[in-house]
Amino acid sequence: MPRPLILTGIDLPLEPSCGSTIWCNDLYPRLSAHGFRTLFAALPGSGTWQHGFADTVLLTADKQPYGPRFDTYVDELTDQVTTLLAHHRPDLVHAQHLGFGLALAFVRATAGRTPVVSVAHGTDVIAAADSKQAHAVLNEIVAASVRVVVPNAAMAAEVDRLTDHRHTDRLVTVPWGVPLPTAPTTRPWARSRLRLVHAGRLDANKSTLTAIEALAVTAEPHHLTVIGSGSELVSLKRRTQELGLGERVTFEPFLPREDLWKRFASFDALLLTTRNLEAYGLVAVEAQAHGLPVAHSDLPGLKDTLGAGGLSYPPGDANALAVVIDSLAAGPDVRQTLHRAALANARRHDIATTAAHLAEVSRTVTGEGR
């Protein structure tokens, strides 16, 4: 008897430039150990990524964000998904994001004939809180899903609020995870001037500006390396110069995760400065798994995710973050304690555990479908 087939994907390039795509690449190959096959759909990338998906299909629609052309874009994707459904006959669809065009195409093309499990990632939920169009899309996707997977209780509460508590019984928490290294790659050094790193997408919600402005008021002249790209890069560089931090803030382009992991050994702590909502904090858990303490904004869900291996501050408060940074620098014993706590906390977030939980949800749904 053939193994059940899951059709999933994200309407982003097939590249490791998005946390959601990276997470899917970590997760779905591991579902084969639980008896599932996966077909992953995406937009064309460079073709150089050595991903782990056994089977992929490239979409041909021209990506469109929310706005007047979004509906036409979804119609094109729906036609393509309809063809995929007819050809591959999946047992289950996993709709990544509660607002992206492909997720909406999945639920429209299946029309209730193939069960849909949707997966909240964060950017979709943030958009739904700010945009009527995104809010309507999220509600349509959730209403058409037999299960809605969320990474933590905070995300579940927000999705529940955005859907007016009409589908509470469909929400299922599946804690996310990362591939854990066999051993930490960092060690706490006794130095008063810290080497700090901020890595990830540079947009308004990630609030990298908070990290830069904090550096301007720390007691010690710490150094910050910002690794990533995004819409805020130009303004961040301008603000760095305005604050006279040109020699203390270094900007570097996006790094593939394996290269970033190698760089962790060059730093003393990671800064996670998200302002409003963080689905999981993938890079922060990766940093912890390699032994780095994390200074993070005190957002719902993040404290539970990062545990005792992190120190929190009020979101957007640069002065408070500066105090946290200086407290890390004040004593190597603090960093040693956080180093041990970070490693212990990361062990709670093994991607293999995530795969087992999602496989069980999927198995239940396909069983109900039959």
How are the SSEs placed, and which strands pair?
Elements (H helix, E strand, L loop, with lengths): L4 E9 L5 H9 L9 E7 L11 E4 L11 H19 L3 E5 L4 H10 L5 E4 L3 H8 L1 H13 L2 E4 L2 H10 L8 E3 L21 E5 L8 H8 L7 E5 L5 H10 L6 E4 L4 H7 L5 E4 L9 H8 L4 E4 L4 H5 L3 E4 L4 H13 L1 H15 L4 H19 L1
Parallel strand pairs: 1-2, 1-4, 2-3, 4-5, 5-6, 6-7, 8-9, 8-11, 9-10, 11-12, 12-13
Notes on the structure:
This protein has 370 residues and is of the alpha/beta class. It folds into 2 domains: 5-177 and 350-369, Rossmann fold, CATH 3.40.50; 195-346, Rossmann fold, CATH 3.40.50. It is built from 14 helices and 13 strands. The strands form 2 sheets. The chain has a 7-stranded parallel β-sheet with strand order 3-2-1-4-5-6-7, sandwiched between helices. A 6-stranded parallel β-sheet has the order 10-9-8-11-12-13, sandwiched between helices. Strand 4 (92-96), helix 3 (101-110) and strand 5 (116-119) form a beta-alpha-beta unit. The radius of gyration is 21 Å and the shape is globular. The two termini are 14 Å apart. The relative contact order is 0.13.
Key features of this structure:
17% strand, Rossmann fold, 6-stranded parallel beta sheet, 14 helices, 370 residues, 2 domains, single chain, 13 strands, 7-stranded parallel beta sheet
User: Total number of β-strand segments?
Assistant: 13
Radius of gyration, whole Å: 21 Å
> How is the biggest beta sheet arranged?
7 strands, parallel
Instruction: Give the distance, in angstroms, between the N- and C-terminal Cα atoms.
Output: 14 Å
Global morphology? globular
Total helices: the number is 14
Structural class: alpha/beta
State the CATH topology of the largest domain.
Rossmann fold
Low-confidence stretches: none
CATH superfamily of the largest domain: Glycogen Phosphorylase B
Sequence of strands across the biggest β-sheet: 3-2-1-4-5-6-7
What is the H/E string?
Answer: EHEEHEHEHHEHEEHEHEHEHEHEHHH
Mean pLDDT: 93
Indicate the proportion of strand residues: 15-25%
